[in-house]
Amino acid sequence: MISVSTLLTFIGMAATTYCSRILGYLLLGNRNLSPRAKAVMDVAPGCVLISVIAPYFVSSRPEEMAALIITLLAASRLSMLPTVVIAVTSLGLLKSVFN
Amino acid sequence: MNTESVRSETLRGIKDSFPLMFAVAPYALVLGAQAAQVNLSSAEVALMTGLNFAGGSEFAAVQLWSVPPPIWTIVLVTFLINSRHIIMGAALAPHLQHLPKRKVLPALFFMADEGWAVSYADTLRRSLNAPHLRAFSFPYYLGACISIYPIWVGFSVLGALVGPHLGNVETYGFAMAFPAVFLVLMRSMWKGIRAARPWLVSLVVASIVHLAIPGAWFVICGALAGLFCAYLWALEE
Questions:
Q1: Alpha carbon of A76: minimum distance to chain B alpha carbons (Å)
Q2: pTM
Q3: DSSP A31
Q4: What is the mean pLDDT of residues B39-54?
Q5: Is A29 near chain B, with CB under 8 Å?
Q6: From A6, A29, A85, residue closest to B44, measured CB to CB
Q7: Residue B184, pLDDT score
Q8: b or e along B96-119 (b: 16 or more beta carbons within 10 Å of the residue's beta carbon)?
Q9: Which residue is closest to B218 within chain A, CA to CA?
Q10: Which of A43, B33, B41, B171 is the most exposed place for a label (fewest CB within 10 A)?
Q11: From the CA of B229, how many Å to the nearest CA of chain A?
């Protein structure tokens, strides 16, 4: 049986998350963007993505660093699926070599 | 848009988000296994991941979990981790103006990093390659985003059920699936080294903050630093 405080926590999280998802859309609304705002919005997705994966770039584990370099090379040339397969395989193999 | 192309666009979205399953499923398994360790039941895990559907904040909630849960701390951390959604929604907003709110608002519930990134990359691709079409394909977005939902909820529940018997999922190579997916998506947004300078700023700032400050601050600090520089550089030009 789920407790009231657990349920409230989940509802609080869900409401907060949903607000974060609609806020950008609602705030920008029908407004036309200035060229400057457009320049910022153009790079925004990349800024978010690279920030999320930043910890991989400062990993203290050699096998993760090596796998990241392989992944970078793969990602610069190949499409999604082969890159993911190469990334996962290389880290798996490197881990078994280093450990 | 007629039914046939809605169907084919939805399928195209599902197909393009398929490689993400390799990243999402193990990540969800780990979340479920960690949740089981703090005595959350599989039903509670289903409720949390099903209502919230935002992985980073769910990992944080599990880390912070106690009985009774520190509700305000968890809600605040959820907001901090998910504040990137505001930027993501704002980036998508100009492409959504032709759609009614009653369609967009429910659809935004499913806007998680992975589906959003796939859909946004597709929007950019279409605006370059097929200027006669609308850049944003709504059924493609739904296909790419909603197909991840059952994977996320299902594998987190599976993780909670089998996690205690599974050993350490992190010992396999699946951790590299996330950077792989994100790097390929960034390549599809690539517009030359000059345009990518703010990304480098984000990477450096997020890395430093990650090393210096515990928790998820690095995401929002890195993103904002990059955006701030993009703003300054746009002033110069």
A1: 7
A2: 0.77
A3: P
A4: 96
A5: yes
A6: A6
A7: 86
A8: beeeeeeebeebbbbbbbbbbbbb
A9: A51
A10: B171
A11: 9
Q: Which residue in chain B has the smallest CA separation from A98?
A: B171
A43 close contact with B: CB closer than 8 A: yes
Task: State whether residue A97 sits within 8 Å of chain B by CB.
Answer: no
Q: Encode pLDDT of B136-189 as tens digits.
A: 999 999 999 999 999 999 999 999 998 777 666 566 777 788 788 789 878 888
What chain A residue is nearest to B111 in terms of C-alpha separation? A21
Is A30 part of the contact surface with chain B (CB cutoff 8 Å)?
yes
Residues A54-98: pLDDT tens digits?
Answer: 999 999 999 999 999 999 999 999 987 789 889 989 999 999 888
Q: DSSP letter at B111? A: -
Sketch the domain layout of chain A as residue ranges.
1-31, 44-99
- Helix axis angle for B55-64 and A4-28, nearest 10°, is 150
For A86, half-sphere exposure in the C-beta direction (CA atoms, 13 angstrom radius) is 21
- Is there a contact between B122 and B16 (Cβ–Cβ < 8 Å)? yes
Amino acid at position B92, single letter: L
First to last CA, chain B: 39
- Two tokens at A28? 């920008």
Query: B196 φ, ψ to 5°?
Result: -90, 0
Please choose, from the candidates B114, B113, B139, the residue with its C-alpha nearest in 3D space to the C-alpha of residue B126.
B139
Residue holding tokens 């994966």? A53
Q: Report the range out of A30-34, B32-36, B120-124, B160-164 with the highest average pLDDT.
A: B120-124
